[in-house]
Amino acid sequence: MTGTINKQQILEMLNQLEIPSSKVVVHSSLSSFGQVDGGANTIIDALLETYKTVMMPAFSWEANTCPPVDDRPENNGCDYAFYDNWNKPMTPFIIEKIGIEKSMGLISREFIRRAGVIRSDHAWHSWAIYGEDAEDIIKDHSWSVTNLPLERLADRGGYVLLLGVNLSSCTALHIAEERAGRNSFVRWAVNREMEVKRVRASGCAKGFNNLLPYCRDIIQEFQLGNATVYSAKLNDLIDTTAKLIGENPYITVCSEGCIRCRDVILS
């Protein structure tokens, strides 16, 4: 399919995916589609018309800060020397004011601006959500866990929808890592009271697409414009990939030199 994509084509694609759940988590890249009439907001409108609950990543590292000298655990996916000459200002994580990372994509950045979208209060893995059960899904997102809202969406039968991105953008696979026995990493952020606190964070995802050939029976694939779209039931994807990671811990390694890939295996 070439040319400009319109809302009707997006709605038809979503219907053809035949996702039985009314709840989806969306990872996306607007540029992967080529031209979209109305841009990011057209895709958001189509998603909200199709599903009762839509969630997207709203991750932020603005409040990230130096690890205290007396709290630097081993095998933690970072080289502490990186912080030796770090002079980043201390920025408190205030959910009402904090932005989201550019890498989340333009669709997520526009979604967070929508009236009615709410967000989990986590200084690393914040999630934005709209619709049915939204409050229950994001409430009490403790900094001591990583992706609790995503786990709650999975427990409600939710699906993941990858719009123009592959499994390397799929945060659910970090849940699979934890269920396979891997530990999340410790990072540090500044809270509202300007205190430095631990926050749990996931590791490297660059090698996650290595899992795709082993998940073909549980993943739907569709082409729209220049973009490949994938969908899968979250629990099926998590269970399948957790088993794969448990059987072959090196399957998700992105490169020999990646400290996060190395340390997550050691954790």
Task: Give the arrangement of secondary structure elements.
Blueprint: H1 7-17, E1 23-28, H2 40-50, E2 53-57, H3 106-111, E3 118-119, E4 127-131, H4 134-138, H5 148-155, E5 159-163, H6 172-179, E6 185-190, E7 196-201, E8 219-224, E9 227-233, H7 234-247, H8 259-266
Parallel strand pairs: 1-2, 1-5
Antiparallel strand pairs: 2-4, 3-4, 5-9, 6-7, 8-9
Description:
The chain has one domain. 27% of the residues lie in helices and 18% in strands. The N and C termini lie far apart (45 Å). It has a seven-stranded mixed beta sheet, sandwiched between helices. A two-stranded antiparallel ribbon has the order 6-7. The chain has 267 residues and is of the alpha+beta class. Helix 6 packs across helix 7.
Report the principal-axis shape.
globular
Distance between the termini: 45 Å
H-E order? HEHEHEEHHEHEEEEHH
- C-alpha Rg, in Å? 18 Å
- SS-based class: alpha+beta
* Averaged pLDDT: 95
Residue share in helices? 25-40%
Strand adjacency order, main sheet:
3-4-2-1-5-9-8
Largest sheet: 7 strands, mixed
Per DSSP, the total helix count is: 8
Structural descriptors:
single chain, 267 residues, alpha+beta, seven-stranded mixed beta sheet, 8 helices
Short description:
This protein has 267 residues and is of the alpha+beta class.
